[in-house]
Amino acid sequence: MRRTVAALLRKELLVELRTLESVPGMSLFALTTFVVFHFALNQNSVSGDEAAGILWVTLLFAAMLGVNRLFVADADQGGFDAFLLAPVDRSAMLLAKALALLAYLLVLELVAVPAFALLLLGPSLGQALPDLLVVLALADLGVAVIGTLVAALAVRTRARDLLGPLLALPLLMPVVIGAARATSPLLGLVHAEHSPARWLLTLGLYDLVFGLIAYAVFDFLLED
Amino acid sequence: MYGRGLRTLSIATVAVMTLALGLIFFYAPLEAEQGFLQKIFYLHVPLAIVSLCGFVAGGLMAIAHLRTRDPRWDMRSYVAIHMSLIFAVGTLITGSIWARGSWGHWWVWSEPTLVSFLIVFLLYATYQPLRFAIEDPERQARYASVFAIVAGAFVPLNFIAVRLSSEYLHPRVLGSTSNLPAKMALTFLVSVLAVALLYGTLCKYELTAKHTRAQLRALRRQLAGESAGTGRTMRRSASPRLALSADSSAPGSAGV
Amino acid sequence: MLAIAPALPLHEAGKYVAGAYVVLFAIVLIYVAIMAVRLSRIERELGELLSSSKRSSADAQPAPPERDLGRAESTLA
Fold first, then answer.
1. Domain span including residue B116
2. Chain C closest CA to B67's CA: distance in Å?
3. How far is B221 from chain A (nearest CA, A)?
4. Separation of CA B232 from chain center
5. pLDDT at position B178 over 70
6. Can you give the pLDDT at residue B248?
């Protein structure tokens, strides 16, 4: 199982590296969105709740772009059939795709968070950075799990680009709540405080529950 | 036969609902803070509870469908979710009316029940478009069941998350269900029972209607087969259709 | 407790409460209406099937006695 996942993951990352389909688009989208926010809110710098909100909305919508493209190549070019013929555990595809999406999100954040600090964020990130990394990691896990599940669900339907975000965004609402509430004290104007533990726990619980459910349910999506 | 218990169930619903309405307006005392307006509580909260349970039940039926591959479970799951969505809209509307009456705004973010329901409504509103976007009926049922399971697990988690997020912001606008005096508690319980029975009756009604349509189609197919007529082309549909063979008039179960 | 002034005067609050309960009533009634439409459609389709099956069995053999059908119809009237 581990080798299958590793092989699939390697394939995903290689394809992404060669075609550069998802990650550059996601990153560029995030940067552009920051500029949109600057003009839409008419603010030069933000902090606290506002800053957390802008950051998470941008990351979330950029993630949706990645989610939309996640299974498209497999659906269009017969990758599903090839996979189904192989004598491997089908959940391996879930794991590999989720890990790939996670990787894309991490790269996205490597670009977007410094850009955010540069363009819009008032207070400096230095003190808050370790906590922020934890929040990012926990939220990314949730987005990766739900994103992969929803992508698999939506890809072989008629309106796949529309259905993906429509399904994912309500499902990700607890992640938005947890991540925004956890990030907001980190970006405080006067000084950075620690993330309330309860939101980190909420995010962790969400990741665990939906990780298990996705694992249990994914097989049924690949059947034909 | 799905219709077998329907009459008993609907009579029970009428009886309990009448009792509930009587208790609400003639027995339960007026609440100190909100006065008469608080009576909406006996409608809004039971609608919310029954709707949430219905969504979770839809998820459980979807699990049964995936395990047994029996299309009847898919139909039950579909009806449960459909009805719960209608009750969720009812929850939102009655909650909004209540908010308007007590705060002067048609929407308040500080009431966790309303906010949770908005999110849940947005999620389940995609259920039918999802079904409609898949043509192959077997795959449609399968994908819908996957969605119902994920969404059913989501409902309680969402509730907890939203409730956590509003705790320290404002006091609950529309009142909570804990610490109810005895008369109100009794009225409340009977109201929940009444709404639950209404939900059950409407679902059974819907299932009976669907089953009857399926029998009709099977009969039509059989008659068309005899005289070599053309069958009607199947319209693409968002709702599950039972395919029955004309000689077995009903699956042997007692229905819902 | 009734001596304490309620949050809204009764006639004001009454409108909101009535509105909320009307919502429930409307949901149930709309459902009844939808079911009525479905029922009439089922009745029509059954009628069509019945007449088409009568036609095909009349082609196969002499018309069956109509007494039973007459009796059933009269009990409906």
1. 6-27+36-172+185-211
2. 32
3. 28
4. 32
5. no
6. 46
Domains contained in chain B, number = 1
Residues of B in contact with C38 (CB under 8 A): 209, 213
**Cα–Cα distances in angstroms (integers) from residue C76 to residues B198, B212, C36, C72, in the given order:** 30, 21, 18, 7
For residue B86, CA distances in Å to B79, B92, C13 come to 11, 10, 25
Q: Assign A32 a pLDDT band (cuts: 50, 70, 90).
A: very high
Instruction: Assess if residue B248 is contained within a domain.
Output: no
Q: Which chains would you list as touching C if contact means 3+ CB atom pairs under 8 Å?
A: B
Most A CBs within 10 Å, among B60, B157, B236, to test the A interface: B157
Residues 6+ apart with CB under 8 A from C39: B209
CA–CA separation, A91 vs A97, rounded Å?
10
Over B4-71, what HEC string results? CCHHHHHHHHHHHHHHHHHHHHHHCCCECCCEHHHHHHHHHHHHHHHHHHHHHHHHHHHHHHHHHCCH
Q: What is the DSSP letter of C6?
A: P
Alpha carbon distances (Å) from A148 to A81, A211, C19:
18, 11, 43
- Interface list for chain B against chain A, based on CB atoms closer than 8 Å: 66, 119-120, 122-123, 126, 129-130, 132-135, 139, 142-143, 145-147, 149-151, 153-154, 157-158, 160-162, 164-165
Amino acid at A105: L
Domain ranges of chain C: 12-54
Collect all residues of chain B within an 8 Å Cβ-Cβ radius of residue C16.
37, 40, 97-98, 100-101
Integer Cα distance of B9 and B15 in angstroms: 10
CB contact under 8 A, B145 and A198: no
Residue B50 at interface with chain C, using a CB cutoff of 8 Å:
no
Query: Pick from B133, B143, B145: which is nearest to A158 by CB?
Result: B133
**Residue A185 pLDDT exceeds 70:** yes
- Chains touching chain B through at least 3 C-beta pairs below 8 angstroms are A, C
Cβ neighbours around A133 below 10 Å, total: 12
The ipTM of this complex is 0.87
Instruction: Look up the pTM and report it.
Output: 0.84
**The pLDDT of residue B27:** 87
The reported pLDDT for the residue numbered B54 is 96
Backbone angles phi, psi at A19, to 5 degrees: -90, -25
